[in-house]
Amino acid sequence: MIISVINYKGGVGKTTMTANIAAEMAYRGKKVLVLDLDPQTNLTFSFLTVEQWQHAYQHQTIKRWYDAFIDKDEELDLKDFITRPERAHKRLRALEATGILDLIPSHLGLVNVDNDLAIKIWKGNQGVTERSHRYEYLRILSRLKTGLIPLAKNEYDIILIDCPPNLNYVTQTAIIASDGLLIPAKPDYLSTLGISELKQHLNQLIEDYNSKAQMEPYGYKPICPYWLGVVFTMVGLWKNEPYQTLQDYIDRVKRQQIGTFETLITENKTDYSEAPEKGIPVVLTPASKDRYASIHMRLKALTSEVEAKIQQMKSGR
């Protein structure tokens, strides 16, 4: 099962949510892979120190995997780019968890891959038939899907992709690879304004891809990623209820009937900011600390909701 976590707007808690859902699923015994597709590399440095990345992993990133495909048309095995973050792994073993939490790291230079993919698609449209262009479009945008399918089938129960805050070509390869889509959003004007537009653009991408896939005999099948819904993050509470201004934005999204989660992730900047330095997501920190009790409860509840929606998705197919 491959799930992309995406929003047009940055700063909505996307990476924190991805890391904690992954960690909680691993704690529950799942084999989990997280893929950092964001050039900001925040998910990568939530698990690895800068020194570890520079010493051992800067040449083992998703950027190098894309570069091999773009520059040489070389199809490297994504399995060779997987690392097991030491600090999170030790914490899971200390908790006697039987699950696995692995990572494919990102790279700041991933921002250039979007341009390179655009050029590759453009070159594929020069002096060729419309059919040849369709084939190149499908082949290029399906590349991540092709790479992840063996891992999803044989190695992991769940793969979570932390997408950049845009719908450029790298993000499009993630959407096309995905079985489901998860949308974190702050309940404020800017974050909620673009949710319906995001869904519209995602639907257009899926429609464009499927229209080409249905015309080609090359084995590219139509896609239909399941909309898991919107998770409201960084929510300020008063007496365990969202502030009224925040509730108004939450209600506005719910009225759009695009699917939302019941669990609200609260704003705890100090606690969340400490987690990347330790390399251990908040949900795996000692729950005995009173300051973490509410956070643990909400992150665990959110993970349970995600798992329930994944089961709904499976049963609906």
Write a structural description.
It is a single chain. The protein has 317 residues and is an alpha/beta fold. It has a single domain, classed as Rossmann fold, CATH 3.40.50.300. It is built from 14 helices and 8 strands. The strands form 2 sheets. It has a 6-stranded parallel beta sheet with strand order 3-2-4-1-5-6, with helices on both faces. The longest helix has 26 residues, at 290-315. The model has no long low-confidence stretch (mean pLDDT 87).
Q: Could you provide a short overview of the structure?
A:
The protein has 317 residues and is of the alpha/beta class. Helix content is 52%, strand content 12%. Helix 4 (62-72) packs parallel to helix 6 and helix 8 runs parallel beside helix 9 (169-177).
Fold blueprint:
Blueprint: E1 2-5, H1 14-27, E2 31-36, H2 44-47, H3 50-57, H4 62-72, H5 86-94, E3 100-104, H6 111-123, H7 130-141, H8 143-154, E4 158-162, H9 169-177, E5 180-185, H10 189-193, H11 195-213, E6 226-232, E7 237-238, E8 241-242, H12 244-255, H13 269-278, H14 290-315
Parallel strand pairs: 1-4, 1-5, 2-3, 2-4, 5-6
Antiparallel strand pairs: 7-8
InterPro entries: AAA_dom, DNA_Partitioning_ATPase, P-loop_NTPase
Pfam families: AAA_31
Domain AAA: 2-214
Shape by Cα distribution = globular
Q: Which percent range fits the helix content?
A: 40-55%
Strand content: 5-15%
Number of strands: 8
| CATH class type | Alpha Beta
Order of helices and strands: EHEHHHHEHHHEHEHHEEEHHH
